[in-house]
Specification:
Layout lengths: L1 E2 L5 H22 L19 H4 L4 E3 L6 E3 L5 E7 L6 H11 L5 E4 L1 H6 L1 H9 L3 E4 L12 H19 L1 E3 L1 E2 L12 H12 L3 E3 L3 E2 L8 H9 L8 E6 L6 H14 L5 E2 L2 H5 L5 E3 L2 H53 L14 E7 L6 H9 L7 E8 L5 H8 L4 E6 L4 H11 L4 E4 L4 E3 L3 H6 L7 E10 L4 H25 L10 E4 H6 L10 H11 L3 E12 L5 H21 L8 H38 L3 H24 L10 H4 L3 H18 L1 E2 L25
Parallel strand pairs: 1-22, 4-5, 4-11, 4-12, 5-6, 8-9, 10-11, 14-15, 14-17, 15-16, 19-21
Antiparallel strand pairs: 2-3, 2-9, 7-13, 17-20, 18-21, 19-20
């Protein structure tokens, strides 16, 4: 196993985020959500030059002078815009194939990239393809750079999908020559100067309005123009085209018996084939574009589904937490749960301490100042501290307090050393920065009246909850940790008895081999082992312990990184419980599955989901993601208010909860990302010591809740 923490993955994460952003922007551009150009104002058209408006529908700019070409007599060029469409284009192709007719398809480049196989079929069956821009943008209002980009992207999409470029181009929203406006003509002239043959139409069927099959047929036939050839505009995408498919059949069936031929534009006017084969390099570039767009489209779909699923799962989790919390409260507040008179076993409180001079005095004083009626002792294990921890404990000279000094060996080593010299039947493990209330010990030991109980988790409170970071951690402790523990208690699958306050039956601790040293989350590892052994691990809401939370983002990162990595180590170590029977299997299938989904998988994908939500707010319909976010926050606030009420806390800190979504939550997600990468790379994470600020150093009395319920 390699030592040291990985660093290079942050660059990979940044590149991954950048790549995801590019793909989302590409998909948004392809669907017209990003960079949409305004439409020209049809109420104030400015006509194009008369030489163009009075000419034919096919405009060739070869030699710099526009030449307007018309269809020969009895020659029909059926043209279809906006495709290819996976539903309607194949139906139109089938009609053409059965009747021996061919047509010209003016394809949208984004649709070409999305349907490369269909694009190849269009060409394979003798038809030709023209450009209809990449996103169906109005070239009359688009700047010159955007127009060239649209046409170039379409050519690359055609190269990637079918290995060709095209000479033909039809502008979106264009129609007959005499309707051509000056801005449209400028766009057409730019395209012509770039080598395109610009195609308008003789007969615009306006089938996109779905006027009925009969009206489409009449517009295409243009009664009264006997034997005249024409370019006919139809559409094979953009909505329900059943009327168009039916109309194409009737048009061909009406005109073929009269000697009309249905061919491509290029053949009709005697031009070279519109489709030009491209070299391998152009195919490779085009294939990259096609692959990128298809990947972006699939990714957007998956992210949308993941966004919805994640929101539903989080709301479901909050609902379940509230329901189980209600069940737990009704159960634990029954009179039968109270401590039977006279049943107060001897207790040994073990405090592992490494450089805890800032708060060790307050911790020890609070442990001694207890109303517990049974026998108890306090064992402080100085695990090789380099500060005044031992001297402070000795100077207190409190009765019932023993000091054990040993070389530094880590927290599990200190806890096991303290347990070896303890005399009590119940072992209470307390961190060196934690303060008990006078009744904490009595409440913590009470559940051991049930012989099935092997361990008890107390209720950890954040003492230094001033400031935004302190309030966020306070909310997290109350909503996340304590609501979770109520649910785990009911389901009998508690994953963690916190190091700040936990009690263990001495015999049970010995049976599972003492406090393990194989992970960085020894409390989680130990609790999982006890659950798998068949003993109950319960949560006691009245056993309050006040702890000093990290006071800076850096300190918070170090603490949560160790917690997260250690929890994953413990989950991996106890993975066999997923397939075992009995108590171990119940624990594994309930607890490990829950932790894997809500503490690993969803946080791991959360940055991508957040990026997708941001993309939706900026470029798509902002209402949906904003409403979902507001609903999610409202559900969190409701659950938080209930959790605070259960703990007798003020609900005032909940005003910071919406702000938590923009910084604190992302930090927790990145902790999971870092932990997963560390685990996958096999790096060994060292113990991260949190610098104490001495929250309790000048205040021996712990903060109190506003009320008791």
């Amino acid at each position: 196993m390699r030592r040291g923490e990985p660093r290079g993955h942050w660059a990979l994460l940044l590149l991954g985020g950048l790549a995801l952003s590019v793909l989302l922007l590409l998909d948004g551009y392809a669907h017209g959500a990003v960079g949409e150009a305004p439409r020209a104002d049809p109420a104030r058209p400015v006509p194009a030059p008369r030489a163009v408006t009075s000419g034919g529908p096919v405009i060739n700019m070869a030699g710099g002078t526009p030449h307007a070409l018309r269809m020969p007599a009895k020659t029909i060029a059926l043209t279809f815009d906006d495709g290819p469409d996976p539903v309607w284009t194949p139906r139109i192709l089938e009609v053409l194939r059965r009747r021996g007719a061919h047509a010209t398809f003016f394809a949208v480049g984004a649709h070409v990239a999305a349907n490369p196989g269909l694009t190849r079929r269009v060409l394979r069956e003798g038809n030709e393809i023209g450009s209809h821009t990449y996103t169906h943008v109005d070239l009359a209002t688009a700047p010159a750079w955007r127009a060239r980009l649209e046409l170039d992207l379409t050519q690359r999409a055609l190269a990637g999908a079918a290995g060709v470029h095209t000479r033909l181009m039809r502008m979106p929203y264009s129609s007959v020559p005499d309707g051509l406006t000056a801005p449209e003509w400028r766009a057409a002239r730019r395209a012509g100067e770039d080598g395109y043959v610009v195609v308008l139409t003789d007969r615009d069927t306006e089938d996109w309005t779905r006027p009925g099959t009969g009206k489409i047929v009449r517009a295409a036939l243009a009664a009264g123009r006997r034997d005249e050839g024409a370019v006919v505009m139809l559409h094979d995408a953009g909505g329900d085209r059943a009327q168009t498919v039916a109309a194409v059949e009737r048009i061909i069936d009406r005109l073929q018996p009269r000697g009309y031929r249905f061919t491509t534009l290029s053949q009709a006017v005697g031009m070279p084939a519109a489709d030009i084969a491209v070299p391998g390099r152009e195919k490779a570039v085009g294939w990259t574009l096609v692959a990128a767009q298809r990947t972006a489209s699939a990714l957007t779909g998956w992210l949308g589904a993941l966004f919805g699923a994640a929101g539903a799962l989080y709301v479901l989790r909050l609902v379940l937490l509230v329901v189980f919390a209600h069940v737990h409260v009704r159960r634990v507040r029954r009179p039968s749960r109270r401590q039977p008179p006279g049943l107060f076993p001897d207790v040994s409180v073990i405090v592992p301490a490494y450089n805890e001079e800032a708060g060790i005095a307050a911790t020890v004083r609070s442990l001694v100042d207890t109303d517990y009626p049974g026998g108890f002792e306090v064992i402080v294990v100085d695990d090789g501290s380099s500060d005044r921890t031992s001297a402070i404990v000795e100077s207190l000279a409190l009765p019932g307090v023993r000091l054990l000094s040993k070389p530094n060996g880590g927290k599990p080593s200190a806890l096991n050393a303290g347990a070896a010299m303890a005399r009590g039947e119940i072992l209470v493990l307390v961190d060196g920065d934690t303060v008990f209330q006078r009744d904490t010990l009595r409440h913590l030991v009470a559940p051991f009246a049930d012989p099935r109980v092997g361990a008890v988790s107390g209720n950890t409170k954040v003492a230094n909850r001033g400031g935004l970071l302190g309030r966020w951690q306070h909310i997290e402790y109350v909503i996340g940790f304590n609501l979770d523990r109520r649910m785990f208690d009911v389901l009998r699958c508690m994953p963690t008895v916190p190091g700040a306050i936990g009690a263990f039956r001495r015999s049970v601790l010995a049976r599972v081999g003492g406090v393990p040293a194989d992970t960085l989350a020894e409390d989680t590892d130990l609790t999982m082992a006890i659950c798998r052994s068949g003993h109950r691990v319960v949560y006691e809401e009245k056993a309050l312990a006040w702890t000093e939370a990290p006071s800076s983002l850096r300190q918070l990162w170090r603490q949560r990184y160790r917690w997260c990595y250690g929890t994953m180590q413990a989950m991996w170590r106890h993975r066999r419980s997923l397939v075992e029977r009995g108590a171990s299997g119940r624990f594994g299938r309930r607890c490990l599955t829950y932790l894997a989904v809500f503490q690993v998988l969803l946080p791991l994908f959360a940055p991508a989901v957040d990026l997708f939500a941001l993309f939706g707010i900026v470029f798509l319909n902002p209402l949906e993601p904003v409403l979902l976010w507001a609903g999610f926050v409202a559900a969190q606030v409701a659950a938080g208010a209930y959790a605070l009420w259960l703990d007798g806390e003020r609900v005032r800190p909940l005003w910071t909860l919406p702000l938590q979504q923009f910084a604190y939550r992302q930090l927790m997600y990145l902790v999971v990302v870092q932990s997963v990468v560390t685990a996958l790379l096999g790096a060994r994470l060292g113990w991260h010591t949190i610098r104490r600020t001495g929250t309790f150093s000048d205040a021996p009395a712990a903060p109190q809740p506003t009320s008791s319920r």
